[in-house]
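Narrative of activities, Objective 1.

The group set out to show that a structural description can be obtained from nothing but a protein's sequence at a throughput compatible with the screening campaign. Below is one input-output pair from the validation batch, recorded exactly as produced.
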Amino acid sequence: MRSLIPLSLLLCSAPIALAQTPAPSPSAAPATRSAPAAQPIIDTIPPARDIAYPGTMRLEVDASDTTQRIWRVKQTIPVSSSGPLTLLYPEWLPGKHGPRGAIDKLAGLKISANGKEIGWRRNPLDVYAFHVNVPEGAREIVAEFQFLNPTTDAAGRISATDKMLNLSFEMVSLYPAGYYVRQIPVVASVTYPAGWSAYGALKGNAAGAVTTYEPTDYETLVDSPIFAGKYANSVDLGSNVTLNMVADSKEELAATPDQLNAHKKLVAESLALFGARHFDRYGFLLAITDEMGGIGLEHHRSSENGVDTGYFTKWNDGPGDRNLLPHEFTHSWNGKFRRPELLWTPDYRTPMQDNLLWVYEGQTQFWGYVLGARSGLYTKEQTLDALASIAARLDLAKGRSWRALEDTTHDPIISARRPKNWLSWQRNEDYYNEGLLMWLEADGIIRRESKGARGLDDFAKAFFGMNNGDWGVLTYTRQDVIDTLNKVQPYDWAGFLSQRVDRTTSEAPKNGFTLGGYALSYADTPNSTTKEIEKAIKGLDQTYGIGLAIKSDGEVITAIWDSPAFKAGLAPGMKIVAVNGTEYSGDAFRAALTQAKADKKPIALIVKQNKNFRVIGLDYSLGVRYPRLTKTGEGAGSLDRLLESKTTSP
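Output recorded for this entry:
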């Protein structure tokens, strides 16, 4: 046995030992450096094939835990032979445009066959893949695991509370590699908390707390999320469309007839726009909650949406989140039925290519606002205010000088909606709103060139409205978009798209306003949208002038790149303590902006950053600025006609 040396002796003797050890001379170093050779990367996961999977998976989910919110999963997967099998957890999820699979929340995985554990091995190159070896004689394997729902915001989006849950089947299932997901049959059953109502696109039979859903394929299962809740209600909107709601309280479900009529009109206006439907039935899934995390995700036969409380009860306070449902409903046509060729994938392992999101999301954003106005979910004034705010904010995106619009389509992969300090320079998912402005301009061009005979409605019907009753997927390319535009109205659409999508620019595309009879202008009072923004941030939004958005306590939320605030040295996270010698408040800051416009003197700020204080002189004289659209001509312009209702009220 080796004797232990007292620590005191080690400490005392260390300098002596070091002193007695000669330092290596440079000449003693190796003449060459070790240089390993790269090894080939071998993908051991079989590629997806468009062939039928031999058997039907059975998926059993127990989602009844309303306290710890742990969902327990048992999945039985038939196998046709012994040997290697790879199971995949969904990674690249439709509608999220990037790798968003919640693999970190899968725990306790055990895989067995014939009643015995057979083990598993995670693929080191693809951590969403699990390799198993099916023993001789096994006809099925059983995977058991838990999905650990976040119980705090720090762990991720809250998808289960003691009053409601949002179950997406990709969270609680695996699937065999080597097959198109549409070729894998599955039957799912879910145990819900007792007394809760559950809604989703799949039909199910309830026996007590357990609902067993109709046999389907894995692609459809993943595209069919569930909302379930203690307080719930379903309203028929006509045309096989329902509004299925869960809420934090019964009171939040109390919609007036006029409010429901606006949702019914949304359905009628959408069907009139596209001229066909690509669903056998459709259910809006709407959670009205301050407890479960928000979500806005499209599906072929449902939405998956969360809004703050007050959706109905504070209807007159402003439009709030009412643009969400028109946007998601449009996705049934644009994004689910018509999908960019390289954004469609045969399974949830194949990476998506997002280049055409300025169509997928840009046109959906456009039609979401148009249908919101046509249905009465938004007033015309609120819609114009929203468009003004969108254009003004995009004009601030100095990043357009180095990043073209198409490059922003890669943001779901690059940044995954993580916070950015310098958003106006880095850019964001601008294909949504800049796409909207581009398509607004396209509508104005079509109306001008056709002398008012046609508009983008004709493109929507031609591009998204074919094959009535087909709820598969019909892919498209950029050339398909150009060809359809030319059939609606001959024009240099290839050049138009190239200019606005592929090239860097100095400002947001606002020609749609000009063609539509409006101009972007600024005033010293907020419009309905900027009021909503200031309510949401609980502060002051003066990004349009001085270049700052500030919380009520003086914390800087946003500093616009190259703005007066930026040039003065302000940055997000700083805190403005005083304005012109007065303790910071929103009113004091507004007053300082107004005074600086009158006397042309710099604004004096005391700013705190961490533990340091600085005095900043802010040279700015444009005053308080909020965007709005102003009429440039007499009578109704093409933008006015675009927003007009096309159907009678229900």
